[in-house]
Amino acid sequence: MSDANISLKLFSPDSLLTQDFSNGYEAIAERYMAVRSRSGRALVQNWAETLPQGGSIIDIGAGNGQPITSALIEAGLQVSALDASPKMVAAFQAYFPDIRIACEAAEDSSFFNDTYDAALAVGLIFLLSKNKQRHLIQNVANALKEGGKFLFSSPYQICDWEDSLTGEGSRSLGREEYHRILKQSGLSLISESEDEGGTHYFEAEKIRHLMA
């Protein structure tokens, strides 16, 4: 495992006892990796084709990289990845030893100090609290280049539910609230879509500033 390609964010022992930065996925990582379907891969592949050739992208909540990150790599994009589960990150590194990945909480990652042509968050944002969702979207907006694209998955309805694998709470803020947060963050909602499994996606673009 190359030190140049992995970043481990250190937390104090006390914080690790009281907070799971993976939102429950570290405890069920093996099960998740065993049951994760290929749903969403085709949609992401098609979206990746609209991005600049060889462009940079941050995959937020990448898990073990299957099946989504692999689609980005095959599209020729320069991928940086995040996941808060050490087990997921280890599996990711086994698949993709040359891809830069950080084991950090997505909403508080140092990777957002860099800039990207695009950002992707599949199966993640609704795991976060409303405030953390808003914070993450703002971080993405700050890190995107002008005209950069952001694709994320979440139900279009306002709803709360229990994650079937972790038992932890999930929440969608709904179409209108996501539209509002995106706009406040300097992003414009440009399309919505669903994959073959019925997962809903929002696509946003960083607003370009016209030169005077």
What does this structure look like?
- α4 (68-74) links the parallel β2 (56-60) and β3.
- The termini are far apart.
- By secondary structure, the protein is of the alpha/beta class.
- The chain has one domain (3-206): 3-Layer(aba) Sandwich (Rossmann fold).
- The chain contains seven helices and ten strands.
- Keywords: Methyltransferase, Transferase.
Note the main attributes of this structure.
212 residues; alpha/beta; Rossmann fold; two-stranded antiparallel ribbon; 10 strands; 28% strand; SAM-dependent_MTases_sf; transferase; Methyltransferase; methyltransferase activity; methyltransferase
SSE arrangement, N to C: EHHHEHEHEEHEEEHEE
Helix/strand class:
alpha/beta
CATH architecture: 3-Layer(aba) Sandwich
CATH class: Alpha Beta
Query: What is the fold named in CATH at topology level?
Result: Rossmann fold
In spatial order, strands of the major sheet run 1-4-3-2-5-6-10-9
Oligomer: single chain
Largest sheet: 8 strands, mixed
Low-confidence stretches: 6-18
Question: What gyration radius follows from the Cα positions, in whole Å?
Answer: 16 Å
| Dominant shape | globular
Average residue pLDDT? 90
Question: Number of folding domains?
Answer: 1
The CATH homology group name: Vaccinia Virus protein VP39
The helix fraction, in percent, is 25-40%
Number of helices: 7
Organism: Litorimonas cladophorae
Keywords: Methyltransferase, Transferase
GO biological process, one term: methylation
GO molecular function, one term: methyltransferase activity
